[in-house]
């Protein structure tokens, strides 16, 4: 059982490293959005995608180890990490509690940066819509002499003659 707790500690530490990497990639994403740098944006998103896949894999492994611990400790299925850590050896439990607290802080920082990135992305999309609307006038255009002309009705694709 101690080996399962050791594996859980190792997985939590690995998750902490990946979340720290994810926070850095999210900050790169934010900077790319702020500077309207399409190449940096593409690279940041690729990096985020790779880190997210690795994080999901580590989280699945953590869930499997935690489920094995739940079975050995006769805990209900889906027990929280805190409930599981109550049965851990003392030294390892303190270390894992610190790691779990760090994971919470990193997750909160990532979520706040992602919310900011969402706002920046929405602003960029709104700007693009306004720009496109200005480039493609809807109804009225002006001739060089200043007269307004109305666009002709679109041609029907159906032959309505009988």
From TrEMBL:
SUPFAM superfamilies: FlgN-like. The keyword Metal-binding does not apply. GO terms for biological process: bacterial-type flagellum assembly. Transmembrane segments: none annotated. Keywords: Bacterial flagellum biogenesis. This is Putative FlgN family protein. The lineage of its organism: Bacteria, Bacillati, Bacillota, Clostridia, Eubacteriales.
């Amino acid at each position: 059982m101690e080996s399962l707790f050791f594996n859980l500690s190792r997985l939590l530490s690995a998750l902490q490293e990946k979340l720290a990497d994810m926070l850095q990639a999210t900050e790169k994403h934010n900077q790319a959005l702020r500077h309207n740098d399409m190449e940096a944006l593409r690279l940041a998103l690729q990096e985020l995608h790779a880190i997210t896949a690795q994080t999901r894999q580590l989280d699945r492994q953590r869930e499997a180890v935690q489920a094995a611990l739940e079975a050995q400790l006769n805990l209900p299925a889906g027990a929280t990490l805190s409930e599981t850590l109550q049965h851990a050896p003392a030294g390892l439990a303190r270390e894992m509690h610190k790691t779990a607290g760090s994971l919470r802080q990193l997750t909160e920082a990532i979520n706040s940066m992602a919310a900011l990135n969402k706002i920046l992305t929405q602003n960029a999309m709104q700007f693009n819509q306004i720009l496109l609307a200005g480039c493609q006038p809807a109804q009225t255009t002006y001739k060089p002499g200043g007269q307004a002309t109305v666009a002709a009705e679109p041609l029907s694709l159906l032959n309505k003659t009988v």
